[in-house]
Amino acid sequence: FEEGLARVQLNGKYGFIDIGIEVIPCKYDWAEDFSDGFALVKLNGKYGFIDKTGKEVIPCKYDSVWHFSDGLALVKINKKWGFVDTTGKEICPCKYDVIEHFKEGLCAVCLNGKWGFLDKTGREVIPCKYDNVWNFREGLARVQLNWKWGCIDKVGKEIIPAVFDDLSMISSALIVIKIGCKQGVINHNGDYILPCQYDEIIV
Fold first, then answer.
1. How far apart are CA 5 and CA 1, in angstroms?
2. What is the per-residue pLDDT across 143-152, written as a single tens digit (0 to 9) for each?
3. Where in 55-100 does DSSP place strands (E)?
4. Residue 156 has what DSSP assignment?
5. How far apart are CA 116 and CA 139, in angstroms?
6. Using one digit for the tens of pLDDT, what is the confidence trace for 94-127?
7. Which of 25, 58, 103, 144 would give a disulfide with 49, using CB separation of 3.0 to 4.6 Å?
8. How many angstroms separate the CA atoms of 13 and 26, rounded?
9. What's the pTM value of the predicted model, to 2 decimals?
10. Using only C-alpha atoms, what is the Rg of the chain?
């Protein structure tokens, strides 16, 4: 029993029972155990979620779904991704090619080959204009534009200009940068801590 209900199978279909009482009929092609009050189910090739009363809070209309996290679930229709809340409301329409998981309150998204970031209301707080991005870490995200790397903050302000061949964050205060084949270290203001003259900086 997971969260008070047991998953059962009958004639190839799945449902749930509570101490011998069938609470949710065996009608689903697939079902997963309940987690945080919801169970992922599959019906006629489509996915959704049910609550413990058997109500389809997220209709079985999606080609793929991810489990709820912080009250949101990723959903996919016609090869496009969006996300819904626990009431089934579509917070973000299914229009993105890729949606990553939330980190520090924002998630990376890709639209027509360009990357940006959404908040948990579905608002595109950082436009999809970058060639590549990394998730936020300590308030900064690595971004690539025209094959060069820099860093932005959570409102999209360019903290480190995208002028470097590569960079990696030691912390929000120190960043290893690369120009050509040489590496150096700058701070979050872009001031050089170590000149770009080393073959490798090991941290």
1. 5
2. 999 999 999 9
3. 56-62, 64-65, 72-77, 80-85, 90-96, 98-99
4. -
5. 15
6. 999 999 999 999 999 999 999 999 999 999 999 9
7. 58
8. 5
9. 0.89
10. 22
